[in-house]
């Protein structure tokens, strides 16, 4: 079955949703656990949440049966191997670290999705993955 690749804007909004979730939860946790009023910048609870979101949301959920972060799930996207199968935890971890390369030099690794026919980012090419629309039958 041919899977339709997800383009730049839908992937951008999925990342925006993930960032929004992290920001809201970080502010909530920072306000709950802060040592003194106005000390949000130095809140370790917000940092711990962001770290946990990265591990759970980006690495685990992408390799799980959900095949993506909450933003991708909400927008009907999934991360798969080039053959369409679910990625494993090792590939998901590699993809997470490959994000750093995609963000280097003005996010060119992300922007290239808009200009490539196969809609692959730099981290997709490095890890042999694709972001595609979910099959409704799943």
From TrEMBL:
Pfam family, one: RDD
Entry's localization field: Cell membrane
Keyword Nuclease found: no
Coiled coil: none
Segments passing through the bilayer: 12-33, 45-63, 96-115
Keywords: Cell membrane, Membrane, Transmembrane, Transmembrane helix
Membrane topology recorded in Swiss-Prot or TrEMBL: Multi-pass membrane protein
Domain RDD: 5-127
Protein name per its UniProtKB record: RDD family protein
Organism: Alkalicoccobacillus gibsonii
Lineage, broadest ranks: Bacteria, Bacillati, Bacillota, Bacilli, Bacillales
């Amino acid at each position: 079955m041919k899977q339709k690749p997800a383009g730049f804007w839908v992937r951008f909004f999925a990342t925006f949703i993930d960032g929004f979730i992290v920001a809201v939860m970080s502010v909530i946790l920072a306000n709950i656990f802060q040592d003194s009023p106005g000390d949000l910048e130095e809140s370790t609870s917000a940092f711990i949440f962001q770290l946990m979101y990265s591990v759970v949301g980006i690495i685990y959920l992408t390799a799980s049966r959900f095949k993506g972060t909450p933003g991708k799930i909400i927008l009907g996207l999934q991360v798969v191997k080039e053959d369409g199968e679910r990625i494993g935890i090792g590939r998901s971890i590699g993809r997470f670290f490959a994000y750093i390369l995609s963000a280097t030099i003005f996010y060119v690794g992300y922007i290239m999705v808009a200009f490539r026919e196969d809609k692959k980012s730099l981290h997709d090419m490095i890890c042999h993955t694709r972001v595609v629309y979910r099959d409704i039958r799943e």
